[in-house]
Amino acid sequence: MRVHRVDYAQNARRNMVFTQLKANGVMDKLILNVFEKIPREHFIPIVALSIAYGDGPIYCDISGRYLFAPQILGLFLQHLNLMPDDKVLVIGGNYGYTATVLFEMGCTAYIAESHPILVAKCREKLKKYNPTIHSGPLKMGLSKNGPYKAILVEIGLNSVPECVIDQLEEGGRVAICITTGEEDSAKACVFEKKANGLHEVFTIDTNMPTCTEFNESESFTF
């Protein structure tokens, strides 16, 4: 009698794709395939393994740091309109999941990360991609490799930082969670940079706590 091994993580990824991404309008086949391929449980703290494929943000052991909810990251990527070899900056690398998704989509991803523990996690998790990981204040971004086609800010902020605007190419897009002032409440937004400023192209309600690492006076507020 042949016994079939059940891959619970694989089943969980498949369920995540159908119930969280497709159900919320993510239809790009490349994005869906990448989400189903990458073991999300490898990019979160051990204590959070039971919610690796949950529908909310996951705390990354550092104050103010959370991994995007799957459907939010999927919607962000769909509205960023990325192509292979596009240069993308991730501000707030966390454990490297978002950058891994970008690499698997064929993009060239760069990471700006301020916390030594998270820098080490990114280097460990992403070593096969040989990524550029800049260790320094998040509010500085990573200008030397810009401008970027897209920037993902994986922290909750109450405004779009000036470094994001400055390091984005014209016509490029930024994905960011803008906190509303209510507890953990935020708007997941995608903006496009044009000659006369940033223009909103997508927004949806989400949950993301505010991160306090940026100097609020140096940000562009909506």
Keywords:
222 residues, Rossmann fold, seven-stranded mixed beta sheet
Summarize the structure in words.
Helix 1 runs antiparallel to helix 2 and helix 1 packs across helix 3. The protein is 26% helix and 30% strand. The protein has six helices and eleven strands. The C terminus is likely disordered. The chain has a seven-stranded mixed beta sheet. A two-stranded antiparallel sheet has the order 1-2. The protein has one domain: Rossmann fold (3-Layer(aba) Sandwich). Strand 3, helix 4 and strand 4 form a beta-alpha-beta unit. The chain is of the alpha/beta class and 222 residues long.
Spans with pLDDT under 50 lasting ≥5 residues? 216-222
How far the N terminus sits from the C terminus, by CA atoms, comes to 64 Å
Strand tally is 11
CATH topology: Rossmann fold
Strand content: 25-35%
**Name of the CATH homologous superfamily:** Vaccinia Virus protein VP39
Q: Tell me the count of domains.
A: 1
Largest beta sheet: strand ordering: 5-4-3-6-8-9-10
User: With helices defined by DSSP (H or I, 4 residues minimum), what is the helix count?
Assistant: 6
CATH architecture annotation: 3-Layer(aba) Sandwich
Helix content: 25-40%
Mean pLDDT: 91
Which sheet architecture does the biggest sheet show? 7 strands, mixed
Radius of gyration: 17 Å
Which secondary-structure class do the elements indicate? alpha/beta
Order of helices and strands: HHEEHEHEHEEEHEEEE
Shape: globular
> Any idea of the CATH class?
Alpha Beta
